[in-house]
Amino acid sequence: MLLTNSSNALRQDLQLPRTEIELSGFSGAKVLLIREGNAPAFIRKISGSPGGNARLQAQAIKQRLTASQLIGCATTPKILEEGHLDGLYYFDMQYIKGLDGITYLRTASFPAIARFLDKLLMAIERFADLQDPQQLFSPRQNSLGKCHDILSAISTDDLRARNAMLALIDILENATMPDELAVTACHGDLTLENIVVTEAGDVVFIDFLDTFLSHWIADVGKLEQDLRAGWYMRKADPLPLGVISYFRQALATLSNRLLKDAPELLPIVLCVHLARILPYTRTIEDRSFVLDRLEQLIAKHISNEY
After folding, report:
1. Cβ contacts of residue 127 below 8 Å, gap of 6+?
2. What single string gives the DSSP state of each residue in 47-102?
3. SS3 call for 26
4. Dihedral of the CA atoms 114, 115, 116, 119 (nearest 10)?
5. In the prediction, which pLDDT does 9 show?
6. C-alpha angle with apex 67: 200 to 261, nearest 5 degrees?
7. Rounded CA gap, 141 and 169, in Å?
8. Which residue, among 240, 266, 233, has the nearest Cα to 251 in the 3D structure?
9. pLDDT for 87-143, tens place per residue?
10. Buried/exposed 37-73: b ≥16 CB within 10 Å, e otherwise
11. How far apart are CA 76 and CA 39, in angstroms?
12. Residue 18 has what pLDDT?
């Protein structure tokens, strides 16, 4: 395989020992942990198809921009190089050694957890401050569009998933929510797995993504996907209830201060986030997990118990 980048060509000429470990993910891109000789390990993210090149390139741009937006509270892995391999766009980035948010919340002391939460809240507020009043969107229409896309991708034989989506669409059509919101900065996929805390306590955001809501409320919704719906528990033991309550209360307080419609909007955003996972589930267990949580949340919303 011929690489156009000169540094890659040099590494090939030297024939350094190379190891690759493929990491898991749901975005469709291939993610590799690579080590060449004695050089520091790095992460390579490769588009899953030529049609996904533009989307992955936009993620790289977003990752670079976010680093400059969050100085003082969080950072992102430095992008080392980018290019195309066999027609697929890729970018290499710094490998960050640390604990993902789930492991950190399970093992860190309470003062360390409090510092982590403070930085996370600061980052979300920084995203909220970076808004463009000239770019407005309808949260209802964007959410409905995404749900109809998901519904069209579900087999007509999958009555359980189709019924859940139809119920969610009905909620979206009748829910109280703002007519318009201004676009803000956001991560796009701010799950606990996509936050790394280094040994020094630095907070690092990884695996950026575009989203149906270009708004910070989408990031809070992703955190709720873990903290309320328990998405992380498909691969990890439950976090202490006190930690979950502490985080959720702080996120709710911030959200309510930044957006008066947050109490009504956030539960719906969470439901759409869960629904978005359905087309990417690879196992019966993951699919059942998503549908169980989605049905529970929809039932609570219909009965006004949220």
Report:
1. 69, 184, 185, 186, 187, 216, 219
2. -SSGGGHHHHHHHHHHHHHHHHHSTTT-B-PPEEEEEEETTEEEEEEEPPPSEEHH
3. coil
4. 120
5. 47
6. 100
7. 11
8. 266
9. 999 999 999 999 999 999 999 999 999 999 999 999 999 999 999 999 999 999 999
10. eeeeebbbbbbeeeebbebbeebbebbeebbebbeeb
11. 20
12. 82
Among 258, 192, 201, 274, which residue's Cα sits nearest to residue 227? 192
| Cβ partners under 8 Å of residue 208, min gap 6 | 59, 62, 63, 66, 76, 187, 188, 189
**Tokens matching residue 265:** 């909007």
Instruction: Give percent helix, percent strand, percent coil of the chain, each to the nearest 5.
Output: 55, 15, 30
Per-position DSSP letters for 163-227, written without gaps between them: HHHHHHHHHHHH----S-EEEE---S---GGGEEE-TT--EEE------SS-SHHHHHHHHHHHH
Distance CA 188, CA 220 (A): 10
Own/partner pairs for 251-257, CB < 8 Å, 24+ apart?
251/121, 251/124, 251/220, 251/223, 251/224, 251/227, 254/121, 254/124, 254/125, 254/220, 255/217, 255/220
**pLDDT tens sequence across 39-98:** 899 999 999 999 999 999 999 999 999 999 999 999 999 999 999 999 999 999 999 999
pLDDT tens by residue, 230-289: 999 988 999 999 999 999 999 999 999 999 999 999 999 999 999 999 998 989 999 999
Residue 11: per-residue pLDDT: 46
Q: Alpha-carbon distance 30 to 23, whole Å?
A: 8
Query: Both tokens of residue 233?
Result: 């528990």
